[in-house]
Amino acid sequence: MILSLIINFSILFTFIVLAYFLYEFFGGFKKAYRQYYPLFVGFCGGIIAVLVMTEALKLSDGVIGDARAAVLILAIIIGGPQAGILTALIAGLFRMVSTDFSVTTMFFGLNTMIVGVVMSLIAIKSPITAKNVHAYIWPCVLEFLLFIMIATPVHWYDLSNWLSMLMNVFAFYTTYGVLYIFKKQFAYTREIKKFADTDYLTGVSNNRIFREELNRLTNNRLAFALILIDVDRFRAINHYHGHLYGDEILKQLATLLNDYANDHNSLLTRVSSDEFYLICYDAAPAHALAYASEMRILLRDHTFMLSNFEEVPLTVSFSIVNYPDNAISPESLVRLADEIRQSKDHSKKLNSIIHTNQLTKNEIN
């Protein structure tokens, strides 16, 4: 009996570790496959339910006690309602045929399916949280217990019956506690990574990510366009309105540009006070020029409103280079974009768009 309890707990713990680490993998690194994660958890949950049933406590002929209820609720917590339903179906079908097929095993299998599906449907309306998790596990465990007492010769005073219930409760709360610790730790890790990867003021990618991405693209020889976005006369804006209001303008500008970048297969980064770089993946010079024109119109039509309800007119200038057409190293690309911005003709123009292909070597120098 003790051995069965230990084995059931070990199986559940393995399920938690495997499923949640894969959740982090799918959620953080494989977004294209995230839609399949509930099905994966549901299938794994079904296999885990099968394993705990094979190592269950035998209460009487054809009647077993195991941590099935804990598996069902944990599958919903980790993978969502879809995972809970799939786990219930697999577990129920196996329960029907795990021993000699009979009316009793069929009822137990159907009961497993019904409980799992009902709990999953409830979780759609009221997702399981740390506050309401007790309202899911206890009804589930008690339903299994009462069903055994009503549908089988097992008596309420049978010690094995109550041990089965306690096994479910102990296994669930212990593994749920481990899951809670995992979630806290991964959330902390993600927060640290976010601070390391994003600009503290605007929330867009910072200079470190910008350099890493340029190195990745050039090392893999992937074509892209690089657009330097420079706020015109930002120093004067800061001087007139103050640095706090200048920060407000940069936040609004970053939000607009980042939304545009997300819609156009691009990455926005902030590299200095009023300078942003837009990395446009697989964008030819003509596409980059079109992007700059669209952003100029977007910013022209936007009203930059400060928290004191004062409107601030704002224009930006765009300098564009292409890899590998105009330069082949990250340093030379950045230097060339900056030289375009500092060129005699371009530096005096406001709200301008210049591609290096439009300038001669003398004009750049």
Describe the structure.
This protein starts with a helix and ends with a helix. It has helices at residues 2-29, 37-54, 68-79, 81-97, 103-125, 134-151, 159-197, 207-219, 234-241, 243-263, 285-300, 330-342, 344-347, 361-364; strands at 57-60, 63-65, 224-231, 266-270, 275-281, 304-305, 311-312, 316-323, 353-355. The relative contact order is 0.08. The model has no long low-confidence stretch (mean pLDDT 84). The chain folds into two domains: 2-196, Arp2/3 complex 21 kDa subunit ARPC3 (Orthogonal Bundle); 207-364, Reverse transcriptase/Diguanylate cyclase domain (Alpha-Beta Plaits, 2-Layer Sandwich). It contains 14 helices and nine strands. It has a five-stranded mixed sheet, with helices on both faces. Strands 1-2 form a two-stranded antiparallel sheet. By secondary structure, it is of the alpha+beta class. It is elongated.
CATH topology of the largest domain: Arp2/3 complex 21 kDa subunit ARPC3
Main sheet attributes: strand count, strand direction, barrel closure: 5 strands, mixed
Structure summary, number of beta strands: 9
Q: How would you classify the helix and strand content by structural class?
A: alpha+beta
Identify the strand order in the major beta sheet: 4-5-3-8-9
Shape: elongated
N→C terminal distance: 84 Å
